[in-house]
Amino acid sequence: MVNGYSDRREAGRRLGRLLAERRLDGVVVIGLPRGGVIVAAEVARALGAPLDVVVVRKLGLPMAPEVAMGAIAEGGIRSLDTDLIARHRVAADELALVELRERRTLLARSALLRGGRAAEPLDGRVAVVVDDGVATGATARVACRAVRRRGTARVVLAVPVAAASALRQLALDGTGGAPHEIVCPLALEPFGAVGRYYAGFEPVDDDEVVRALAEAGGGVRR
User: Fold this and answer.
1) What pLDDT is recorded for position 174?
2) InterPro entries per the record (predicted)?
3) CATH assignment at residue 146
4) Which of 116, 74, 117, 69 is nearest to 96 (CA)?
5) Stretch 106-120: mean pLDDT, rounded?
6) What count of Cα atoms within 13 Å lies in the side-chain half-sphere of residue 135?
7) 30 and 136 share a domain?
8) Distance separating alpha carbons of residues 155 and 170, to the nearest angstrom
9) What is the residue range of 39's domain?
10) Tell me, what's the pLDDT at 221?
11) What residue ranges in 81-199 does DSSP mark as E strands?
């Protein structure tokens, strides 16, 4: 680990303390599943705010699925890296196939995590969008677009660690994905993988996300 956190919960507590200093009113904390919800649960606790999710899915290159050529989010939100798609000569039918698969997964994941519960109302409220880190900004961008479309007064992107270049691009985003404010204690360059900045960065499964939402009063109890 290079200058980071013991685990996601510690990262959330530190992030929560920073956000508490801003004395934001009418806050809803929104975590990105899966790992971002664990961070967000601690942020919501620190702010005394409700916890919800926004489900996003990365669109990975057909030949390198770990590399994002775009992302999708609830509400029909879609963002593509057209330069990357052209550079790797991704055909329209290949893109469509990846998006169809990820759209189906997104719908199933949303139904599972919400358990039939309606999304937290955001009209006129401050949405604090939380993930466990930002490497490229692809998923953060569509998440911010999704919550902005739901009538928020203000969107704050809060992450424990991020690539400085990705945050700069997010701040200047002209597609509706720019947050009004970014809170990030560790913005670094060069960056590498998010997990590098956590001593413990174990995979998070859906059951853990459901439990975190239920404990915060924002999900279905099982």
Assistant:
1) 72
2) PRTase-like, PRTase_dom
3) 3.40.50.2020
4) 69
5) 86
6) 11
7) yes
8) 12
9) 8-55+120-215
10) 33
11) 126-130, 154-158, 161-163, 181-183, 186-188
Q: What is the pLDDT of residues 59-101, one digit of tens each?
A: 999 999 988 899 999 888 998 989 999 999 999 999 999 999 9
Give how far Cα 163 sits from Cα of 159, 169, 192, 194, 212, Å. 11, 10, 8, 9, 27
In a domain, 152, yes or no: yes
Question: How many domains would you assign to the chain?
Answer: 2
pLDDT exceeds 70 at position 106: yes
- Are residues 72 and 18 part of one domain? no
Beta sheet of 126-130, edge-to-edge order? 51-53, 27-31, 126-130, 154-158, 181-183
From the CB of residue 191, how many other CB atoms can be counted at a distance below 10 Å? 20
More confident residue, 219 or 9: 9
Residue 220 lies in a domain: no
Question: Does 26 score more than 60 pLDDT?
Answer: yes
Query: Tokens 């660690």 label which residue?
Result: 161
Instruction: Please give the average per-residue pLDDT across 163-174, as a whole number.
Output: 90
171 in any annotated domain = yes
3 within some domain = no
Q: Which two tokens stand for residue 13?
A: 């507590």
Distance CA 81, CA 95 (A): 11
pTM over 0.85: yes
